[in-house]
Amino acid sequence: MQGLEQLFYLHGIGFDYTKYDGEHVYFDYATRVNALRCCGVNTEHGSEIEKLNFALDIKRWLDVVGEVVLADAQSGCFSLKIPESARDATVVIQIPDLSMCHSCALSEAEVVGDYRYNGETYLDVKIKIGALPVGYHKAQIEGPFETKTTELWSVPERCYALEQEQLKRTGLSLQLYTLRSDRNHGVGDFRDLYQLLRGAAAKHCDFVLLNPLHLLFESEPERASPYSPSHRCLINPLYIALDWAVEMFRDHYQVNVSDACCPEPLDSLAQYIDYSAVAEVKYAIFTQLYNECIDMPVVREAVGAFKNYRMHDLNVSALTDREWFLQWLAHQQLQACQQHATQVGMAIGLINDLAVGCAKGGHEFAENASLFALGADVGAPPDPWAEAGQNWGLPALNPIKIQKQNYAYFRSLVRSNMASFGALRIDHVMAIRRLWWCFESQGKPDGCYVYYPFEHLLAILKIESHLNRAMVIGEDLGIVPPEVSSAMSEANLYGNILMYFAKDQQGHFKPSEQYRADTLLMVANHDVAPFNAWWTHNDILIRKDYQLCSEQEATQMSMAREDDKARLLAWLGIKDTFASPQYSDIHSIYGALLKKLAASPSKLLAIQLDDLEQQPLPVNIPGTDREYPNWRRRLATPAEQTLEQNRHLLAEIKRIREQA
């Protein structure tokens, strides 16, 4: 293999894949060439291709170690590439931050691979230096070659696990902005979350799974999707609770904040969020708070320390001092929520959600533009719900450029989204292995899979989960490569099951006792209809009303839904829905469904607050932007009231989980 074919492989450009229906699909040559061009490669320049192939293949054997070396934390085992002529030499490994100096005889090292170049044979050998603390360590390696420096990553075998990890935990899933209260300003905020946590813990919940809290767009408040953010390492300031912030400044920092910073609640009865109105009110008060508080020495010092730490940690530099002030405020309140969750007895507390990508017009893309491909977006190949495939409109990362600065970009992304959380859910976790790229070929839509440095990205998840004491959950819905599934299982990286999609090839719901244990189990998530809407076909009616499908398509979907409902009733062992008073309403069927899921092996069961409230409207319809009011629908009642109304159901689920 040489030339472009070799470069396709070394650069991660896919060759084939298995479609959802079992068809084996091969990417044509022109498609692969265009994917490589999106990576900035001149595919018609032979010397450039040769140079890249040398750098990505041969040079790695000549350099002894790369800029990063992965070591097993338990044994300190890692790989060196040495000339065969050096087989009888000794190497000395020094790790200054650990005060470690270790000598290894290469003759005793295990040979695990070899490479022939220019008449010389190079060996891949494994050496062991003993157990290492988990983390990233600067190392020097001296031997029969010039001294080499590298970053030695001490990687644990598994992601962080809770004590008593065999116990089955139950929690809530919710979209924070949908929370309703008589004190917020039109959008759910961190004080709403804080107040919810005590009630949820009292109802036997060990966690609360949130939507991504990423920074959106202050100047464009209607760009409301948490999955298309401006920056994934920063927090959306609209989640800051104004009254809580004022109390903090007055009580903790003794700042005499004016009463103008405490406006009346904003339209608490509205069904949908008016982001423009919310942003106008809250950002005006944020500015006033900043002006009144930032000149106080104790506040200025706290914000300055936070800014210095985050700028170093995240390489974020484009924010104004006012924006750093808001990030500091948001982190203060978020940290208080997680501390409160553990204080009231939650085993996990908050679970964060990391979106698969960022928007092109935001801070994250602007500050890291050199890491992204040119003219390529990420999406998904054809599947039963989108036969034409999907383009999510998010820029694709270049799999080679992401390795820059020892993967600093991905490390900061994971670290910042684990801080102040008990667990991290990673949207479309297959992205650490491969992503579907969407681009144009001769003016027509085209696409293929592009592969990423899986071993290193998985190592970062393992390391950061231990450093932050946070579990990791991967949303593995859709087409999942077998190597991802096996790696997740070995690494204690939990998967994600949606009951709606847990079916066999005949369309029947799989027996719940066959569910994987290390999973987060849910009936539905933000991309599918709440159970009430699903059962009543309301989601289909909405699609028809918004002209997202034809009358004929709606009829076909309704017929398929009726088949699914019949299969669900059979799965639940209910022969006639309305023959028994016990199942005379939708919520009773939903309760039976939750009890069935509660008895499954899945260690984490997330109950959607939308479903407990019997919400008839979806929060998002995939494939739409503004056609339907995505990310705007609020809950109808305060969360605490919904939990109280379902206290008996939640108690029964706890009993089943403890006995199953």
Descriptive account of the structure:
Helix 1 packs across helix 3 (about 45-60), helix 10 packs across helix 11 (about 455-465) and helix 14 (about 540-545) runs antiparallel to helix 15. The termini are far apart. The mean pLDDT is about 95. This protein is α/β, with parallel strands linked by helices. Among the domains are: about 5-60, no CATH class; about 75-155, Immunoglobulin-like (Sandwich); about 215-345, no CATH class. The chain has 19 helices and 24 strands.
Quick summary of this structure?
This protein has 660 residues and is α/β, with parallel strands linked by helices.
Oligomeric form of this entry?
single chain
Main sheet summary:
8 strands, parallel
Structural class: alpha/beta
The best one-word shape is: globular
Note the beta-strand portion. Answer: 15-25%
- Name the helicity range: 25-40%
Counted beta strands: 24
Distance between the termini: 54 Å
User: What is the averaged pLDDT score?
Assistant: 94
Number of helices: 19
Draw up the topology in text.
Blueprint: H1 3-10, E1 16-18, E2 24-26, H2 29-38, H3 46-62, E3 68-72, E4 77-83, E5 90-95, E6 100-105, E7 110-117, E8 120-128, E9 135-143, E10 145-155, E11 169-173, H4 190-202, E12 207-209, E13 214-215, E14 231-235, H5 242-251, H6 275-293, H7 297-314, H8 321-343, E15 349-354, H9 363-367, E16 372-380, E17 390-397, H10 404-418, E18 423-426, E19 434-441, E20 444-451, H11 454-467, E21 471-474, H12 482-490, E22 495-498, E23 519-522, H13 531-536, H14 538-545, H15 551-572, H16 586-598, E24 604-608, H17 609-612, H18 639-645, H19 647-659
Helix pairs in contact: 1-3, 4-8, 4-18, 10-11, 14-15, 16-19
